[in-house]
Amino acid sequence: LAVLLGWVAEVSGAFAAFARALGDHRARTAALPEGGVEELRQTAQAVNAYVAQDRAALENRALVLSGVSHDLGTPATRLRLRSAMIGDADLRARLERDIDEMTAMIDGVLTYTRAEIGAEPFRDLSLTSLAEAVVADYQDVALPVTLRAAPSRSARAGTLFSRTTSRAAPTDHTMLMRGQPTALRRALSNLIDNALKYGREAVVMVGGDADELWMTVTDRGSVLNGEDLARLTGAFQRGENSGALPGVGLGLAIVSTIAAQHGGRLEFDQASEGLEARIILSRRWA
Questions:
Q1: Where is the Histidine kinase domain (predicted)?
Q2: Is the pTM of the predicted complex or chain greater than 0.70?
């Protein structure tokens, strides 16, 4: 009986480990372990084969889109040069906007596909330093983007043998994590671009606790309801207040994908003067 119970515990533990690995392996882009009992091994092999096919399809899509983007560059340049010879200024401006929208759409789909693949290696980084660098790029061209200190908050901690106590959250200088720096810069830039496009300014804050870090971008003047916010994280979705503003509706979808690849999520909240977007990231996802 003891041997049987030990075997059941071993199998149960193997399936529990498999479930945990299955829950996060797509973001880690690592194969599931193919061990344990025969049924578990066969399941892991099937899942790995499916994910490998799915990833190969994504990489092939990115390769095709990259080729299309490159091939469209030459005719788009010719169109732009020819449009410069059009005497009607209004017609010329409309044609140039169409060319910009066409190239932006291809580039946006390519960026979205690359974000889905998530091939960039994870590195140790300071989220505060990353945010400072991104904000400085906007300030260099006189755009209304500021970085403010996040309000202090306490984290709860405790053990099996002690009461839960409060401890200070990490300071700005300890906002360290493992992540994909280029992808995170893209995510923050997309949130800032949205804030500037639909509001009048962007205020960036970085915060965190022992398990998660987050970056928030708050605008001024953007008014969206909960239904709109849930819809806008999908691909090719734009807000009703976008009007004639440029864009193809992939910015927030890219941010949401990058957040998921870091074990996190994208959330929205109504601030006193506008909309607050928050990208939440796991500190030890990879």
A1: 67-285
A2: no
Least Cα distance to 136 among 148, 126, 147, 150 occurs for 147
List, as one string, the DSSP characters of 193-232.
HHHHHHSS-EEEEEEE-SSEEEEEEE-SS----HHHHHHH
Please give the Cα distance from 268 to 23 (Å, whole number).
Answer: 24
The DSSP-derived string for 160-204 is TTEEEEEEEPPPGGG-EEEE-HHHHHHHHHHHHHHHHHHSS-EEE
Helices and strands, counts by H and E, the chain:
7, 9
Residues 6+ apart with CB under 8 A from 232: 224, 238, 239, 249, 252
Residue 205 CB coordination number (10 Å): 19
Contact 237, 256 (CB under 8 A): no
The model's pLDDT over 25-58, given as tens digits with 9 standing for 90+, comes to 444 555 666 666 677 777 777 877 777 776 677 6
For the chain, domains (ranges, CATH) are: 2-117 (1.10.287.130), 123-282 (3.30.565.10)
Q: What is the pLDDT of residues 220-242, one digit of tens each?
A: 876 665 566 666 655 545 555 55
Structure token pair of residue 59: 């990489």
Q: How far apart, in whole angstroms, are the C-alpha atoms of residue 103 and residue 83?
A: 16
The single residue listed with the structure tokens 């979808």 is 253
Contact between residue 280 and residue 267 where contact means Cβ atoms under 8 Å apart: yes
**Contact in structure between 47 and 24 (CB atoms under 8 Å):** no
CB 215 within 8 A of CB 188: yes
What DSSP state is assigned to residue 87? S
| Structure tokens, 32 | 């599931």
